[in-house]
Amino acid sequence: MSQYTGKDAGEFIAEAEKIIEQAENKGAPLRLIGALAFHLHCPGYRHIHEKWGRVFTDTDFVARGEHQELIIEAYAELGYRDDEMITTLYGRDRLVFDNPETGMHSDIFFDKLDFCHVLQLRDRLDVDELTIPLAELFLEKMQIYQINEKDIVDTMMLIAEHPVGENDRETINAPVIAEVLAAEWGFWRTVTGNMEKLLDLNEKTDLFNAEEKKLIESRISEIHDHIDREPKPLAWKMRSKVGDRVKWYKDVDEL
Question: In the chain, what are the domains?
């Protein structure tokens, strides 16, 4: 594992853009996820990351599974080496790269993020030029069952920075979120539970001023309204009757 612990987000963003361009030239789209994607989309709130001394240690992407070999070539041309054991064991779903010259580390997930819940992404990789769409960034964080404060704050930054609407143009596309959560009760349960945790932190934190906190509360309410209005299939309704008596999320192990 890379020991690189540079704090300059700009350096990581520049590296991410270089990797994306190299892969794109081969016809293999890569889209950034994780804290760096939030930093990139939230220029008005980067001071929060700076205040916390947020350390960026790698670049994480999602790509399409059929592009694996092209991605390995692109990384090799940039001086990276793939972790052969990870490639052998998990290559269908994930690749891990390290650059021995720079110490940079990079993870690639294929087609989806499969953690506490499965977030399908392959059909949405062309929406944004650098990252997965804002709706999926929201879901990436909110699907974490044992969510921590930094992940909640990243989500608050995203919500404070961007309006909620029904498109993807620097907008949190609420119908996309609602559709994903209508497909699986467990996903809905985790995300809506974390939205309550977000509202609770929003009341207590001093990271945002009163006006920003009011805006965050209003936008969470907008997202909730879309989720509530989305029709739920019979399977969702039947699972909801079982509720918390049966575990609805997966535990996530480190690689």
Answer: 1-132 (3.30.460.10), 133-247 (no CATH)
